[in-house]
Design brief:
The structure holds two protein chains of two kinds.
Chain A (H helix, E strand, L loop, with lengths): L9 H11 L1 H18 L1 H4 L34 E9 L5 E12 L1 E11 L3 E9 L18 H37 L1 H16 L2 H11 L6 H31 L3 H8 L4 H9 L4 H24 L11 H5 L5 H6 L5 H23 L11
Antiparallel strand pairs in A: 1-2, 3-4
Chain B lengths: L5 E11 L4 E12 L4 E6 L5 H9 L6 E10 L2 E2 L5 H7 L4 E4 L3 H4 L6 H12 L4 H14 L5 H6 L7 H13 L5 E5 L7 H18 L2 E6 L2 H7 L2 E6 L2 E7 H6 L4 H11 L1
Parallel strand pairs in B: 3-8, 3-9, 6-7, 7-8
Antiparallel strand pairs in B: 1-2, 1-4, 4-5, 9-10
Classes of the chains: A mainly alpha, B alpha/beta.
């Protein structure tokens, strides 16, 4: 007996098409992993973002060894070897491993205190080693802070700025665009000219100018919020223009007339009868604009105008890599750059795939 | 009660075109009494729909009202503010549009869109509102109101959609229903059902109905009075049966002959 075929909703059709695109699914899960590790950064990282040990300046990534070769009895407990710093004949700092010093890798160890999800005080970390040993999976920076931990904490800022910034500019863009398109006439004219003013100035310079307009000695939280506001300020204009065009055509539909005949207010008509029809476009536009926010934050922080030390973001972690000597002798400082690259690519691939999936002309044809 | 429910006096509406303005309605006079069914007939482009929409002040921005008054229930609608108009639309005047597929928003369910009228005009708890929607759908002859309320417009047949449209129009228990060619997108048997439904509703809710149509057969069976519109002017007006049996104006005769085929 065959099951009766259920009819598919538009969402299910789109989901089906999305799943067919392997690359997009992989990108989706990569982003899920990134965002989850950003949320649980406190727990996943062995140290807090400001935990430093000057003896480990530019310490290279450590290898986790599983098998102790010197013992007859093979142990499978992972460990790292202790490192010590010496200078070679060119007076260059080198780290040597000391095979006598074994620090077994421990799970759920006590470490720096933190609040899980900002609520529950805790001090357990997923992994770590006993003092005086230190574990640096991805090396350490100039002040001997663990790069892996700092990248996890930096992800919080870099990844959230994209989402929050895009949410704000999305709402402003939708509202301004729909208002301009729906009312038309003078309101449309004024709003669109304002839009053009924002689009006219090259984004990055506008961003620098806005940043310069605020005092330099702000706290990191203030800078974080400021960056979000600046980005939303720049980002809404292009979305608003397209939404305006769509609402001009949508407002001529008969159901809008019907809604007016029912006595609905303008706001209700805009929100319920015009904006939902622009959603498939705006979801794609939003997805494709998130990378711009992430790159923008990185660029600001790279130039030292964004998040300040000791707080970490992927951009200000990369500012270490502006020093050619650091890149030469400690190439692991480039890891944040690679992560930015991966994140941006993932958003672009997903956005591209969503554009295909949400196309209403796409029928649920059976692929052979 | 001698005062008519709706009185349109000397209404002139023109549309702006490149060089000169074109008049859509010229010195249009019309009345609808309480509990009366009136038809506006005329060929395409004669200004029927414009007249209907002008009552609700829903003309497109390019159209301009040059002169005249529209008195509804003792209130001049042309002088009313937007806020006052909103209270009248849907609550005191309901509209049934020509094509229910276009008149429903495709992204919401039928139930939600009928609820919308109630939400604006009669504040009541959500559960009660949904109950009322089911009652309304039942009232217009839909046997499975729960299922229909959950459906999207494209999932229903044309007849069901038109019934749902009527349910939406009567949701605010209006004094006047404007039906703009309510049957032109339906087949003949359904047309008869819909007309029957209108007749029942009229008696039950004590409303007046303004029927905008070109179907003279429907007018003969259903309407008390009829106004014949040609090029923005009422050319003939009177009791429906008289006009259809002994038309005086040549254009009326032309319409009658055309409908007989």
């Amino acid at each position: 007996m065959t099951k009766p075929r259920k009819s598919l909703s538009q969402f299910q059709i789109a989901l089906g098409h999305f799943k067919e695109n392997r690359l997009a699914v992989v990108c989706f899960w990569i982003l899920v992993i990134f965002y989850l590790s950003a949320i649980f950064a406190d727990f996943l990282s062995p140290y807090s973002f400001s935990n430093e040990d000057r003896n480990y300046s530019y310490c290279p990534p450590m290898e986790i060894k599983l098998i102790d070769a010197r013992h007859e009895k093979k142990s499978i407990h992972p460990y790292v070897l202790g490192v010590y710093m010496t200078f070679d004949e060119f007076h260059k700092r080198v780290y040597k491993t000391d095979s006598n010093q074994k620090y077994p890798l421990k799970f759920f160890v006590k470490g720096d205190a933190y609040k899980l999800l900002g609520l529950f005080p805790a001090d357990r970390h997923l992994f770590g080693v006993d003092a005086p040993g230190r574990i640096h999976l991805w090396g350490a920076d100039s002040r001997g802070r663990d790069l892996f931990s700092r990248i996890l904490f930096g992800a919080r800022i870099s990844l959230s700025i994209g989402l929050i910034g895009v949410t704000i500019s999305f709402f402003v863009g939708l509202l301004v665009g729909a208002t301009a398109g729906y009312y038309g006439g003078r309101i449309d004219n004024i709003l669109m000219r304002v839009c053009e003013m924002f689009m006219m100035v090259p984004g990055f310079y506008l961003m620098l100018a806005l940043r310069a307009a605020f005092p330099a000695n702000l706290s990191s939280v203030q800078i974080y919020l400021l960056i979000i506001v600046i980005f939303s300020f720049i980002g809404w204009a292009s979305l608003a223009r397209v939404i305006r065009g769509m609402s001009i055509s949508l407002k001529e539909r008969e159901y809008v007339l019907a809604a007016k005949a029912m006595g609905l207010s303008d706001l209700a008509i805009i929100v319920r009868h015009i904006l939902p029809h622009t959603l498939s476009y705006s979801i794609v536009a939003v997805m494709l604009s998130i990378p711009g926010y992430i790159l923008g934050e990185s660029a600001l922080s790279l130039l030292g105008l964004g998040i300040q030390d000791p707080f970490a973001s992927w951009g200000n972690l990369l500012s270490d890599a502006m020093n050619i000597a650091a890149v030469k002798f400690a190439p692991w400082v480039l890891i944040p750059g690679a992560l930015i690259f991966v994140t941006v690519m993932c958003f672009n691939v997903i956005g591209d795939c969503l554009r295909d999936c949400l196309d209403p002309l796409l029928k649920s044809e059976v692929r052979s | 009660m001698s005062e008519p429910l709706l009185k349109i006096e000397n209404l002139s509406i023109s549309i702006q075109e490149k060089d000169n303005d074109r008049e859509l309605l010229k010195d249009f006079n019309f009345e609808i009494k309480n509990f009366e069914t009136v038809a506006l007939v005329g060929g395409s482009g004669s200004g029927k729909t414009t007249a209907g929409l002008s009552i609700l002040q829903l003309l497109s921005p390019a159209m301009r009202i040059d002169s005249g008054r529209i008195i509804f229930n003792g209130k001049d609608l042309l002088a009313a503010s937007l806020r006052e108009m909103r209270k009248i639309r849907g609550k005191e005047i309901g509209v049934v549009f020509q094509d229910p597929l276009n008149a429903f928003n495709p992204v919401f369910t039928i139930g939600f869109q009928i609820e919308e009228v109630l939400r604006f005009h009669e504040p009541m708890p959500g559960r009660q509102r949904r109950e009322k929607v089911h009652q309304l759908l039942n009232r217009v002859g839909i046997t499975e109101p729960q299922r229909i309320a959950r459906s999207y417009p494209h999932q229903l047949s044309g007849g069901l959609r038109q019934r749902a449209m009527i349910a939406q129009a009567i949701a605010g228990s209006p004094k006047l229903i404007i039906a703009d060619e309510p049957t032109s997108s339906l087949d003949v048997t359904l047309q008869a059902h819909i007309i029957e439904l209108f007749r029942d509703l009229k008696n039950e809710f004590k409303t007046s109905i303004l029927l905008i149509t070109h179907d003279l057969g429907m007018v003969e069976h259903f309407c008390d009075r009829v106004g014949v519109l040609y090029d923005g002017r009422i050319v003939e007006e009177g009791c429906a049966k008289d006009i259809l049996s002994s038309a005086k104006h040549p254009l009326t005769c032309e319409l009658i002959n055309a409908s007989k085929g």
